[in-house]
Amino acid sequence: MRRLAVMLCAIATGLLAQEATVEPSWLYRNVASLSEHSIDLSADSCRYTAIFGEGDTESRYPKSVARFGELNVAPSGHCQTVAYPREEELLFVLNGQGNLQYGDQTHSLAQNDFAYVPPTLRHSLANGSNRPLQLVLITVRIPQGTPISAPTKPEIANLSELKEQTVEGHPNSVLYKLLIGPHTAARDRINASYTVADFFLMDFAPGGTNFPHHHETAEEIYLILDGEGQIAAGGGMNGIEGLHAAKAGDAYYFRPNCTVGFYNQKASAAKAHILAVRAFVPMPQDPD
Known about the structure:
Blueprint: H1 2-19, E1 26-30, E2 46-53, E3 65-73, E4 87-95, E5 98-102, E6 105-109, E7 113-117, E8 123-126, E9 133-141, E10 155-158, E11 174-182, E12 190-193, E13 196-204, E14 218-226, E15 228-235, E16 241-247, E17 250-254, E18 260-264, E19 272-280
Parallel strand pairs: 11-12
Antiparallel strand pairs: 1-17, 2-3, 3-9, 4-7, 4-9, 5-6, 5-8, 7-10, 11-13, 13-19, 14-17, 14-19, 15-16, 15-18
């Protein structure tokens, strides 16, 4: 009887081991292969494609980023009005023109505009043109206990207002446009966020790289806008970063402490641009 019990225990342990999975340190998606997902701002003329977070098959992995996806507003279309008590929203206009509406105010949006919408502010998006409006939509959770100032209005700017610059710790072969950062700093074009550490655009020279690195207390997402190269994600058994072919429309999510980087092609005129967001992740408290 005891022998039978030991055998049953061993079988059960083996089954549990087979069912157990290793949580990935990074996720990959290609936008063209993804399906639409209905969210609170969706309408017949306002369609959302989930890349990471809500609507994605592995939405449990991002801890601070609630949504990262593509929003398409049809000509003469509009989205539902929304407000998020403890989430901040980032927008980046990929193509087209439209309007960001809040209260009784309307602010026009054009290609390469980016916007910060503070928590609790009721707002919506509309497209009064005869061309589709395509945006990147990101919402980021703000931890409980973080003081939030009373909202006034969204802040909006355009890439053309920013000069490219190098960033300390990264090579000169990649130049940055720093779009949105913390309200306690003064580095970015818009300094307003609570959880968002950086929202930025990277411009890679032929053969350029931002060198593989990691962030101990932040998660990060890369969306390749154009160009081709190799994404560094995670690490191999030999300690060298894992390299993955990357092209326009590819997106990667990196958990805290995951290796992240990009190597552009070395061919002449091989430019590449990546839109990226980095968000702080609350760390568990050490009981000791």
